[in-house]
Amino acid sequence: MLCFNDNGQVVDVSGPPAGLRPAVYGILIENDQVLLQPHEQSSLWQPPGKVLEAGETPTAALLRCFQAAAGILPAITGLLFAEDRCWLDGEGKVWRLSALYYGLKRPTAGVAGMINFDSAARPEWFPLENLTRDKMLLGFEAVEAGRVREELALS
Fold first, then answer.
1. pLDDT block averages, 10 residues each, the chain of length 155
2. CATH code (residue 16)
3. Does some domain include residue 79?
4. Which residues of 22-49 are buried (b: 16+ CB within 10 A; e: fewer)?
5. DSSP label at 119?
6. Three-class SS of residue 145?
7. In a domain? residue 113
């Protein structure tokens, strides 16, 4: 079975997945830029989000995650994309990652800019014109879906 690892590489693994890891990520696009975070173990980018914990709903987890990572509580505009992929974690366990990607909008009042964090994983604005699949660990297709939604909203 082919799986992705934490470096974005495809590796061949044997045996069934150890379990399911549901995850949620947010796609925030403004001014032809998308808000992305560097992945902790690689130099690749991904949308802000997280693996869900037991009892968490996707939308509540996404809002908490975004508030912690970016300092804003965005409005959720709807589901953009869903994917299932085989994932090999840093400990060598194989998981089925089931990720939901939601479109987001910045809140309309009270936020002029991003809060500066000391963490290396703080989100940054990435120009859409420079974004390619090989620069992302997760979520490239979701960003593309968000880009199309933005273009349709502007027309």
1. 89 88 95 91 90 93 89 91 92 92 82 51 89 94 94 79
2. 3.90.79.10
3. yes
4. bbbbbbbbeeebbbbbbbeeeebbbbbb
5. S
6. helix
7. no
Of 82, 72, 81, 83, the C-alpha closest to 30 is: 72
pLDDT of residue 40: 80
**What DSSP string runs through 15-64?**
S--S-EEEEEEEEEEETTEEEEEE-SSSS-EE-SEEEPPTT--HHHHHHH
Residue 121 β-bridge partners: none
pLDDT of residue 110: 52
Domain that residue 69 falls in? 2-108+118-154
Please name the residue that has the structure tokens 């799986």.
3
Six token digits for residue 2: 């082919």
Q: How far apart are CA 112 and CA 100, in angstroms?
A: 28
- Is residue 29 included in any domain, yes or no? yes
